[in-house]
Amino acid sequence: MPFLRNLPLLALLVTLAPMVHADEDAPKPAAKVYPPIATRVIHAGGFTLALRSDTQTLARLSPDGEAGFDFVPGGREAERAGDGFNHIGDLHLRLRQEGGPWQDFASQHQRKPITPLPTRAGELAAADISATLGAGLPLKVERRWAVEKGTLALRFTLTNTGKAPVEIGALGMPMVFDNIILDRDLDQAHSQASFVDPYIGRDAGYLQVTRLNGAGPALVVMPEKGTPLEAYKPLMQEGRHSGEDIFTEKSPRTQVSEGFYDWTVASKGFAEKEWTKAGEQWNVPTSITLSPGQSRSFGLRFALSPSIRGIEGTLAAHGRPVAVGIPGYVLPTDQTASLFLKSPSPVRSFAASPAGALTVTPDGTGKGWARYAMRAQGWGPARLSVTYADGQVQTISYDITKPLDQVAADLGHFATTSQWFEGKGDPFHRSPAILTYDREENHLLTQDSRVWVAGMSDEGGAGSWVAAMVKQLDNPNPEEVAKLERLVNETVLGHLQVAEGEHAGAVRKSLFYYDPKDFPDYYDPKIDWRSWTSWSKKDSEDIGRSYNYPHVAIGHWVLYRLARNNSGLVKQHDWRFYLDRAYRTATAMMRDAPYYAQFGQMEGDVFLDILKDLKREGMTTEATEMERLMKERADHWRSLKYPFGSEMAWDSTGQPEVYAWMRYFGYDKQAEETSEVILGYDPAIPSWGYNGNARRYWDFLYGGKVSRIERQIHHYGSALNAVPLFDAYRRHPGDLHLLRVAYGGMMGGITNIDQQGFGSAAFHSWPDMMRWDALTGDYGMGFYGHAIAAGTYLVKDPTFGWLSFGGDLKREDGAVTITPKDGARRRLFIAPAGLWITLEAGRIASARYTPADGAITLTLDPVTPEDKAARVFIESTAPGAAPYTAPGQLERGGYTVALGAAPTVLHLTR
Fold first, then answer.
1. Which of 601, 654, 665 is CA-nearest to residue 627?
2. Distance, CA of 481 to CA of 578 (rounded, Å)
3. Residue 589's Cα: distance from chain center in Å?
């Protein structure tokens, strides 16, 4: 297999620009040499840090004993030394005096000499930085670096030196950490670079800076008193910014660098200008007024957490309020959730916005935590404000949604009605189809300069029909299945997918393409067709992009499962036809798209399910061949330190499939390393937006309506990366962090779906937008992750007690009963027993677990026209867990259980 080893990262960016064939013998320009920057090295607060001699800004921040690692881009300090480059220690201000306009002042914009000041006890450096903030500043600004109680601190003191009040409408402290992947290969990126995730929670807000390899220590940035994290504002790239503010950054924001942000203490000045058309902010924008002669200090503290899992403990140790939501911060209106709070100051009050959206009820205390029951009503984002007795205010962002079975029903209906395309004579053979939808215009997108978006392939075009298809896996609807079977047999087979011949099973890049010679009157002249994204017919028929293959495999595999396990849903072919087509798709990927097949694929887990089903069905020849091909990939990944290459320089796409095959082939060490890497970019944070939000920041370019580099919230990576974390938790049920992050990502994939069933590609997190993208784009890849992972988890945690993720929990008579409400009701994990129960037909009504003897009673829903028998699989996943058996006929690895008019009760025995 011609797998290519760890190539330089930029060589993988083949989809970002046309291929350029350079003369390899031509002389390469010499790298620019920059003069060295004088710094002062200090050991303090557990760090080896360096402050620049001229600016006193931070030039290095390494954990003691790790000289080769730096949380800030210190290795680029020389090239980033001039005007326009931000560093930790810089300051941004937007000010106005009564009756006047807002004025901006930025210490990095045009640097002027600062005035060093005498240091006091515990201080490392001090300076008056007023001059470098710009002319006309009505304040004096002093900055001090200090160590207090062993913790590194950065403080600014602002003094109104004039005779009139000054309103501070924006106060931002640049948070510049080394997320720059440029010129690094994957090994270097994982060992040297960091990612930053914000908890935009006012006085309880913080930043967590985690290393790409998932290893500790992690950096935690916390506020001092009066320094809330009110907003997290991107520093726009200088020269590519149409706004008037000077809070910009010269370092390019690209696919190899997410860019930098401001810890924004006050944001009213932005809300009145740049953000006027945005959705609701995470927090209410505020301003600060200084009277003549008045001073006020703002500060941040920098502390090391021994590990990512230790971040909340580190916050608590520093006296910060900590919140833990179970199962997370996405609340269906038919479920009761839990909120745990720990703070040195007791809770004084709760307030919800919108009023009445959230109901908080005390539900006990224990081991330093106060427990509250949470209920929700309404729909959409809601903010819970927790006021403590010491006056601090913590905000927690929730998202309220319908009961999950209704959410799935809405999605299926919208996709198969509003997005259904049956255009007679469509020259691109897209009929029948489910096409991308524009929610702003409320119509199908039959044309786009990124041709795949309208072409049913790639991620941006396949997303909608993949979502509709995988929705049927656990929530089939006969009318929807009938349409989808037509889509597969009339449009996919023979058009999107090669049906016969030497390339049978291969998948094209797009059905839609740009060919003005053949179709001179078809293309919208208002669209710019000059980009590389407007593929020709030849380009669109390319079968070499492996990422297109899982989408088609899902279509065949879901129809196989429905035909095999349900009655009367699939009618055009038998189950063997669809399983065979799924197998052909998988092997065609290996034959016709070998370059990209060296990487993990989004939705690549489907290949493992196909292989397992081939084995269950006794299709030994096919299973043997597929296993051989997949093992070649797994063996290649096993040889790499970080086997997460992609067509992109860094990606959160490949890790889930890499994990799946590492587990399958018994490469447990590599599987564990993979799940730890996922935790490096997938956080547990008290916000529906960031909790379980696997990092993505470039795919709006390829599937969004607003096309820009921007941190995406709940793009498909969230739900896809939840899948391996769930598996890792089931193997290690004592590690609650894995489950919390997994459930946050899985439920994050639901927030994209609006009240009518439209599924957005992702949420625009920058405060000038704060709304969902208007295109469906590649949303379906995420819903695939949600659909195959949706389940309920019963947990006994040593700190928090009995917990339910995805259902209602009731304790009585020495037993615990759980009623699943996860939307599928086909997957249940009983953590104390280490037992994983899955159904491929039928529904779980409830389960009763008796801890004393391990007895488990499973109650199934009555018979339905589609589910005449349940298909029950049970697996003991945790080390040392006792195996269980179930009544029923054992076939194809599971138990077939006849269903009747009344609920069916199964007693699982050990």
1. 665
2. 14
3. 27
Lookup result for tokens 């309208």: 454
What are 856's strand-pairing partners? Answer: 849, 908
- What whole-number distance in Å separates Cα of residue 44 and Cα of residue 414? 58
SS3 state at 586: helix
Radius of gyration of the chain measured on its C-alpha atoms: 28
Spatial CA neighbour of 39 closest among 87, 92, 84: 87
Q: How far is CA 596 from the centre of its chain?
A: 23
DSSP H or E run through 228: none
Phi and psi of 851, rounded to 5°?
A: -60, -35
Give residues with Cβ within 8 angstroms of 176, minimum separation 6: 58, 72, 73, 86, 87, 88, 260
Give per-residue pLDDT as tens, 490-502: 999 999 999 999 9
DSSP string over 661-713: HHHHTT-HHHHHHHHHHHHHHS---SBTTTTT-----STHHHH-SS-S--PEE
Strands 827-830 and 792-797: parallel
Residue 814 scores a pLDDT above 90: yes
- DSSP symbols for 780-828: HHHHHHHHHH--EEEEEETTTEEEEESEEEEEETTEEEEEE-SSS--EE
- Buried b vs exposed e over 97-113: b needs ≥16 C-beta within 10 Å? eeeeebbbbbbbbebee
**DSSP tag of 180:** B
Are 125 and 56 contacting, i.e. CB atoms less than 8 angstroms apart? yes
Q: Residue 725 in contact with residue 749, Cβ under 8 Å?
A: no
How far apart CA 261 and CA 257 sit, in angstroms, is 12
Residue 20 or residue 370, greater confidence:
370
User: Which tens digits make up the pLDDT trace of 363-419?
Assistant: 988 889 999 999 999 999 999 999 999 999 999 999 999 999 999 999 999 999 999
Q: What single string gives the DSSP state of each residue in 135-175?
A: TT--EEEEEEEEEETTEEEEEEEEEE-SSS-EEEEEEEEEE
Token pair of 256, please? 């190899």
Q: Which amino acid is at 59?
A: A
| % of the chain exceeding 90 in pLDDT | 94
Amino acid at 143: R
Residue 474: helix, strand or coil by DSSP?
Answer: helix
Average pLDDT score, the chain: 95
Measured CA angle at 770 (ends 768, 776), to 5 deg? 120
Question: Which pLDDT does position 366 carry in this prediction?
Answer: 82
Cα three-residue angle 220-225-229, rounded to 5 degrees:
55
Distances, alpha carbon 209 to alpha carbons 36, 69, 319, 400, 688, in Å: 27, 13, 19, 29, 19
- Cα angle vertex 11, ends 216, 649, to 5°? 30
Query: Residue 223 contacts by C-beta under 8 Å, 6 or more apart in sequence?
Result: 203, 205, 206, 229, 299, 300, 301
Q: Tell me the two tokens of residue 173.
A: 């402290």
Query: Which two structure tokens, joined as six digits, stand for 501?
Result: 């011949």
- Alpha carbon of 369 to those of 82, 326, 384: distances in Å? 48, 13, 18
User: What HEC string does 826-837 produce?
Assistant: CEEEEHHHCEEE
Strand partners, 151: 148
How far is Cα 72 from Cα 70, in angstroms, rounded to an integer?
5
716 neighbors 729 (Cβ within 8 angstroms)? no
The pTM is what?
A: 0.96
Q: Helix 605-616 crosses helix 549-565 at what angle (to 10 degrees)?
A: 40
Cα–Cα dist 852/536, whole Å: 67
In the beta sheet, which residues pair with residue 837? 828, 874
Would you mind telling me the total number of residues written for the chain in this entry?
A: 910
In this structure, are residues 177 and 302 in contact, taking their beta carbons and an 8 Å threshold?
Answer: no
How far is residue 399's CA from residue 755's CA, in Å, rounded to a whole number? Answer: 13
Distances in whole angstroms, Cα of residue 312 to Cα of each of 127, 324, 338, 867: 33, 9, 17, 45
Residue 45 near residue 302, CB atoms below 8 Å: yes
Token digits of residue 160: 């109104």
